[in-house]
Amino acid sequence: MKIKLLFLLTAVFYSVSSMAAFTNNESEQLSEINTKSKNRVSEIIGVLDKSINEQISNNPEKKKRILELKNAWGILIIKKCQLETFDSKGTDAEISGVNDCLYNGYQREISYFTW
């Protein structure tokens, strides 16, 4: 599930940086920034999954509700980030901006699930 979500996010928010007029060094730096931001999102998704699994283990009778909330929250985060980064679509800052938004959204979700 999280692999599909990450793939979807990458496909939806991917911008073609090779079309911009960059030097090789600038392109490499942008690529490195984008890779780091993607890795940061992947790591936070792992922490989120662990947090949710702990809540399910501690509250097995609430498993269905917890998973429903997780799915709804995931949709909310994606839609919110699409809206918040609308103006950066197609720019060099798009991937990093979207990933920062996703990271912050997942961070808030983790805070909720660690009650």
Task: Write up what this structure looks like.
- This protein has a domain at 41-115.
- Helix content is 77%, strand content 0%.
- It contains four helices and no strands.
- Helix 2 packs antiparallel against helix 3 (63-84), helix 2 (24-58) packs parallel to helix 4 (94-113) and helix 3 (63-84) runs antiparallel to helix 4 (94-113).
- The longest helix has 35 residues, at 24-58.
Mean pLDDT: 86
- Characterize the largest beta sheet: strand count, sense, and whether it forms a barrel: none
Class by helix and strand content?
mainly alpha
How many H/I helices?
4
Question: Low-confidence spans: pLDDT under 50, at least 5 residues?
Answer: 15-19
Helix share, percent: over 70%
* Strand percentage: under 5%
Broad shape: elongated
Kindly state the number of beta strands.
Answer: 0
Tell me the series of helices and strands, N- to C-terminal.
HHHH
Rg calc: 16 Å
Distance between the termini: 24 Å
